[in-house]
Amino acid sequence: MTNRMFRKDPICAFGLLLMLSVSAADAQEPQTAHHRFRDTEHWAHIFESPERARWQKPDQVVSALNLKPGQTVVDIGAGTGYFTRRFARTVGPSGKAIGLDIEPGMIDYMKANAKQINLPNYEARLVQPDNPELAPRSVDVVFFCDVLHHIDERVAYLRKLEPGLKRGGRIVVIDFKKTAPSARLPR
After folding, report:
1. 40-174 in CATH: which number?
2. Is residue 164 pLDDT above 50, yes or no?
């Protein structure tokens, strides 16, 4: 970009200034947005709302992942298993979908849901906030949906995923933040 562009387009200059100030403020904030989801009933009402399907388009998300039968997908911060159960159906009985969460109530919710919809390849596991506890070379896809910004020491956490990925494994992140985007990577 040149200075000439800013002279011609003050809106563009204002947008860049706004992005820079958001980035500077972002750098001073803690690395995470801690929020616990202990009230399972309350959060299930929100996470399972029909409105979510309209704006998040879960079927399109799952389709875009191009999952194959027999694959193992780990859904980190799975909550109620909104995506986990979709993954279980997609990878079929020879595959596995594992919902990880730090909230015991969410784990209970997912286990009951898996039993109710009769998906034995839909699992739920309680994990610590700083460790996904993946078995070595066991996972084809690690999936985060609006969770990564809640994790402390994100880079260290992401490094813990690598040993669990199979050759050619992927990490997929769907996340949003209600402020202007920042070009800087998480620390």
Report:
1. 3.40.50.150
2. yes
